[in-house]
Fold Ubiquinone biosynthesis protein UbiV.
Amino acid sequence: MTATTLELSLGPVLFYWTRDDYAAFYRAAADWPVETVTLGESVCSRRRDMKLDDWLGIGRELAQSGKRVVLASQTLIESEADLRDLRRLCDNGEFRVEANDQSAVQRLAAAGLPFVAGAALNLYNPASLAVLARAGMQGWQAPVEMSRDDLTRLLADCREQGLEAPCEVFAYGHLPLAWSSRCFTARRHQKPKDRCQFVCQKYPEGLALRTQEASREVFTLNGIQTLSGACQDLRHELPTMAEMGVASARLSPRAEGMAEVVAAFDAARRGALPAPDPLALVEAEVCDGYWYGRPGMDNTRGVSAP
């Protein structure tokens, strides 16, 4: 098997930023060496600063800059209002949708629209991928906890069965682990979820949750979403991903230093990793345990940020 040409993609912003922050971020991203940019609010429907029309406007500007644009659906659908917003998103008529729950898959499949399957759909075997391929799936994301060895076997099985939808791996950022109907950031501020006063906007890179024993950051709270405490960095694995047949490496946006992250990954996919590779790109601990079949918070290379 020959190596594929690995692309870079920019995932949706998982945190709650201001309109000005989103605008500035994507103005800069238009010039970054990424092939795909995924836009939209995938975490919480109460984050209403950005409407669908706002995301479409940013998407058009990015498309004019040569980017492939995808709109992310919400991962946890909790109300009829969420479903109405989902229908509008799926029927946008301009950009492909990343389906992050089965209601999005159903809507898109019923309309005969192609879609990308998000990691939250938990696709672990060729049978599941075949079902979604028949429904219109034209790309999929590996579950964030899937190891390199398991993904290698899965991709080989898919090739044997003629399933050629491109696969994307979450290569950089705090790993999305879980979603809940309860908002933990609001609870931290002793506010009810429906009157949260949008306190998560105070934390543009999430709220660190530390252990009492060792004061280690085990999780990052982001409203109703729980992320890893450390930041996954698989730069050094990009050549291996290409050999495996992975099509794209996803970089999850951060509020600071994202241009440097993209530049480092672009250099890595072209074989220009520094030696020795310090891995640390921003001030966050590094993890890569899941990729090696170990506990997710492990750092197998033993390197932490300064």
